[in-house]
């Protein structure tokens, strides 16, 4: 089944193609629904589609909040972290400032930016749940990544019927019915 998703089509016996079809359709529908639910959750807070896409990309870079600041060496000692040099402190402050400016370029209002960022993190968790459901039955991470990055957006509005089986005739050696199963 991983081969079908990885290569978009495979040739196999007709019986095996029918068996693969049901599993593949279920997994693709889980990916599509997970992606759709994540988008709906984010759309409830962010009405502009472009802003929603940009804030989701921003959230995927890592955890961030507009209230973050660089901790003093005393605070770092309490957290059992190594103290920062002046150069290290400047680097972290510049990095935080750049992230802050990047977020405020998407949303000029700080409160709106915080709400949108929180919704983006929640949308990522919703999508992660769907990924883990698929990984439990299909442990190939590259295939799961392809399902969410390529197949889920392709089939977003489609209610089902993600695969097509085409009969190719009989195999020479044992006269078994050969079929090609392909993603539509």
TrEMBL record:
<dbReference type="GO" id="GO:0022625">
    <property type="term" value="C:cytosolic large ribosomal subunit"/>
</dbReference>
<dbReference type="InterPro" id="IPR036373">
    <property type="entry name" value="Ribosomal_bL17_sf"/>
</dbReference>
<dbReference type="GO" id="GO:0006412">
    <property type="term" value="P:translation"/>
</dbReference>
<keyword id="KW-0689">Ribosomal protein</keyword>
<keyword id="KW-0687">Ribonucleoprotein</keyword>
<protein>
    <recommendedName>
        <fullName>50S ribosomal protein L17</fullName>
    </recommendedName>
</protein>
<dbReference type="InterPro" id="IPR000456">
    <property type="entry name" value="Ribosomal_bL17"/>
</dbReference>
<dbReference type="Pfam" id="PF01196">
    <property type="entry name" value="Ribosomal_L17"/>
</dbReference>
<dbReference type="GO" id="GO:0003735">
    <property type="term" value="F:structural constituent of ribosome"/>
</dbReference>
<comment type="similarity">
    <text>Belongs to the bacterial ribosomal protein bL17 family.</text>
</comment>
């Amino acid at each position: 089944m991983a081969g079908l998703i990885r290569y978009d089509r495979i040739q196999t016996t007709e019986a095996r193609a029918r068996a693969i079809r049901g599993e593949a359709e279920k997994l693709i529908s889980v990916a599509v629904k997970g992606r759709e639910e994540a988008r709906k959750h984010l759309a409830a807070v962010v009405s502009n589609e472009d802003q929603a896409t940009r804030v989701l990309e921003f959230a995927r870079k890592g955890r961030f909040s507009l209230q973050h600041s660089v901790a003093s060496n005393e605070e770092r000692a309490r957290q059992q972290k190594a103290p920062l040099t002046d150069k290290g402190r400047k680097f972290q402050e510049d990095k935080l400032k750049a992230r802050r400016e990047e977020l405020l370029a998407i949303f000029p209002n700080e409160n709106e930016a915080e709400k949108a960022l929180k919704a983006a993190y929640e949308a990522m968790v919703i999508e992660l749940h769907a990924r883990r459901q698929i990984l439990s039955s299909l442990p190939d991470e590259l295939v799961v990544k392809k399902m969410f990055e390529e197949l889920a957006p392709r089939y977003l509005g489609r209610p089902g019927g993600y695969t097509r089986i085409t009969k190719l005739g009989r195999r020479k050696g044992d006269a078994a019915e050969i079929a090609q199963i392909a993603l539509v």
